[in-house]
Amino acid sequence: MTRQCEKCGFVNQDDYDFCAKCGNPLIEGVQPKNFIIFKPEDVKINKKALIISYIITIFLSWSGFIVGIIAKNTRMAAFTFFGFFLPFYLVQSRHPTIRKHGFIQLIISLVGVGLSFYVMLH
């Protein structure tokens, strides 16, 4: 058995309470459920935590480069991969500002790791 919408005339399945085409209630007295929409722009960003994340990312991703310049013939550049953890975590955020800072930190990490391996291999 099917239900026909009084508003648009669309034929709906029997177990539908609302029209699949226009959303009109098919049964009298049925109210649609209200949903609360979370907007990530309303969330305040902790700037201190963001600055600390930049410091940690720079320290971890550039440490192999600095140690490689100071102490020749070292394999410390392999540890600079730890500098990728925090940016990859931030890139996965739903908040656009946090995601933007994650991409910036990812670029900083890529440059630091690239220079670290350049120093290690030359």
Describe this structure in words.
- The protein contains three helices and two strands.
- With 122 residues, the protein is mostly helical.
- It has a two-stranded antiparallel ribbon with strand order 1-2.
- A hairpin with a 6-residue loop joins strand 1 (2-4) and strand 2 (11-13).
- Helix 1 (47-70) runs parallel beside helix 3.
Shape: rod-shaped
Supply Rg.
27 Å
Distance between the termini: 77 Å
Structural class: mainly alpha
Mean pLDDT across all residues, rounded? Answer: 84
Number of helices: 3
Percent range of helical residues? 40-55%
**Multimeric status of the protein:** single chain
Approximate strand percentage: under 5%
In short:
This protein is mainly alpha-helical. The chain has helices at 47-70, 85-91, 96-121, and strands spanning 2-4, 11-13.
Record the SSE blueprint:
Elements: E1 2-4, E2 11-13, H1 47-70, H2 85-91, H3 96-121
Helix pairs in contact: 1-3, 2-3
Annotation keywords:
122 residues, 3 helices, two-stranded antiparallel ribbon, 2 strands, mainly alpha
